[in-house]
Every structure is written in C-alpha cells, then in structure tokens.
Amino acid sequence: MDKMTHTGKLLDIVNRYYELQLCYAELKAFRATEIEHDILNNSFIFCDGDTDKLLFRSSWFSEIDGERTFIQEVIQACRKIIWRYSDLWLSHIAYPFKRRMRPQVARSLINITCPESEATILDPFCGSGTTNAEAYLCGLNSVGIDIVPFYTYMSEAKIRFFEQEIIFNPIASENNGHPLLDVIHAACTLLKTKFKYEKRASEIIELQRIYFDQIRAKLRSHGKTEHKFIVGTATDIPFPAGHFDAIVCSPPYGSAIKYEEENPGPEKMMEIPDELKQYQILTKDEESWKNLMTDAFSEMHRVLKKSGRLAIIIGNQKRKGEIVDYVGWAREKLTSMGFKPLYQFTELISSTGTRNILNDEILIFEK
C-alpha cells in the first residue's frame, strides 16, 4: 500500500533555522515520516502523520495540502488590526513582557512535548502567561505558577480574553472591570512605551470581536479547557506526583535580568509574599541560582508523568569576558535526575533587555 504524501506550506514569518528544526520535531510528534524540507517552495513534504490534528495544532504551516491551518487564520485575522506584530496574536499583545517566550515557540514546544488531544501543561515560571494562552489555543488544560502576583494576574487575564467580553468606553471612562484592561493600563503607564491606553484597549477589543466572530467556534469544537494560576514557587509545586502530561517553561536568568523592574505592574501586585521571598530565583548569585534550580528541576521531575516531556529554554551568560555555562549545567543536572535528552536547538535572541545573555538553548527531555 502506497504511503500518503502531504505538503505543508510554511508561514511567511518563518525565517530562522531553529524554526525549521522545531517544525521537523513537531511533525515527528504528530507521527509524520519521511520528512523533507523543500527549500524552493518554502514547505515540508512528509508521509503519514495526523493531518487533521496538524491543521489545528501546527505552529509553522499556513496550509497543509491546500487547506488553511488554524494558526494561519488566527494570524491573518490579527493582521487586519495590528499587522506589525507579525509573531504576536490576540491577547499576547496586551503587555510587551521583556524576555517572554515567543508564542509560536511556546505553541511548538507544547506540540512536541504533548501531541495528545486531552492533557494538562505546566509552566512553573509562567511570567506573562504565553505558554498558558497557547495551551488554550491548542485545546489543552494548563497550570501557571509564578512568584510575582501581578504575573499570575496577567496570565489569567489573557485567558479571560477568550471567555469574557471586554467593555470599554474611553469617552465616559467606563469599563466592565475586565482584568486585561488592568494589564494594558500597567503596560501603557508604567513602561516606557509610546502606546496609549485608549488606543491599545480599543485594539484589544477589536481583536476580541474578531476572535468571537471568526475563531472561537472552531476552538470550542475541540472541547472546553481548564486553566489555573497560582502565586507560588517552582521549588514547591502543589500537585501530586505524575500529575502533568508535559512541562514547558523558561526559567529566570539569574541576576542577568531584573524582571520586576523591566516588567512592572501595580505596586501592591508586584509584592512577593514574605513566605516566598527566600525562593526568588531571579535575583540570586550563581550558586544560589543553581541550588534553587536544582530544587525546581526535582519538583518538575516529580509532578511529570512517566514518559512525559519537559521543554526548557535557558541561556548562557557572559561575565567579565567569560561564559557561564548554565545550559551545560542544566543539561547535566536534568540528565542525572533521570531525564532523557531528546532535542537541543539554538534560538537566536535580540540583545534588547538581555544584558549579557547569549543565545537561548531549547532543551527537550523525556522522563
């Protein structure tokens, strides 16, 4: 019996080598075989694979066998409002969180670690909630944990974008208290940006209207999902052993980035609870960072199901002309705990807001 051959056309925003690597790994996760990159036609040719699931979950294809993918429809709809955000969509634009995970990368890592249709994803360093929002758009459940209350509030607000209508009247200064408006207000008043609150709120409302009119029905056909956010620490994850199907995260960069200064929120919501301050990984020196990350890795291993996968993005740092090899340390530490290395990809990053961070490395393991 001849194998079925398929063609996946790449999105026009795919232009980096590591994106092609992630696309290949994603195809493998959805059981595709004989995968080839057709450079001239900007596409991948592959056999077998779950094409129905790929049409919904793919991160990198605009169409498969001539049929448009879900993510292509999302991107095209968003470009009608804010075309310049070529790799952002829907609620991701509410707050320009520095050192966030790219939504497309988060979506791809979810697919590579968890191709199942029913599962729960954990991000124990959820930050602005990119992983959780993409889990929602993949029809999966998620849990987000962060030590900063405003960040869990922001993450939950991005999920509420998909479910609760935003009402905003700039003339009468009236709104319905949607949490995403608080997030937008923080971004426009506390960050040094040129964005105006009224304009950004209006853009978000228009994006939500497009989502409700054009996208929501297709997403709902894949079932209702649940999302939970916890102010806490990755060193003490409040779930039983083997609870999560996959973990996708980008841990803090030690002292290289001052997240609370570069991603501020309302003062009260930025206050870390006293009982958690000793576990604040991002401001520690190298030894303390490694000790706390060791505890976090141990907790991730505990709460991940057997054969579950972990995707982690981490970067080396340059100090006084010497490279601090956090990537090698993390890979060795995770392997010693029983994780099996599957992939490693180099993700190029801009220098904005990253100080002495070198390129990110995407590490994927299986328990």
- Characterize the quaternary organization of these chains: single chain
Main sheet attributes: strand count, strand direction, barrel closure: 8 strands, mixed
Q: Say which CATH homologous superfamily of the largest domain is assigned.
A: Vaccinia Virus protein VP39
Strand share of the residues?
15-25%
Order of helices and strands: EHEEHEEHHEHEHEEHHEEHHEEHEE
Description:
The protein has 11 helices and 15 strands. With 367 residues, it is an alpha/beta fold. The chain has 2 domains: 1-68, Alpha-Beta Plaits (2-Layer Sandwich); 97-164 and 222-366, Vaccinia Virus protein VP39 (Rossmann fold, 3-Layer(aba) Sandwich), CATH 3.40.50.150. Strands 6, 7, 10, 11, 12, 13, 14 and 15 form an 8-stranded mixed beta sheet that branches. It starts with a strand and ends with a strand.
Set down the secondary structure blueprint.
Layout: E1 5-10, H1 17-29, E2 32-38, E3 43-48, H2 51-57, E4 61-64, E5 67-68, H3 70-82, H4 103-113, E6 120-123, H5 130-137, E7 141-146, H6 149-160, E8 168-169, E9 174-175, H7 179-190, H8 197-220, E10 227-231, E11 244-249, H9 259-262, H10 286-303, E12 304-319, E13 322-324, H11 326-336, E14 340-347, E15 357-366
Parallel strand pairs: 6-7, 6-11, 7-10, 11-12
Antiparallel strand pairs: 1-3, 1-4, 2-3, 4-5, 8-9, 12-13, 12-15, 14-15
Helix pairs in contact: 1-4, 3-8, 4-5
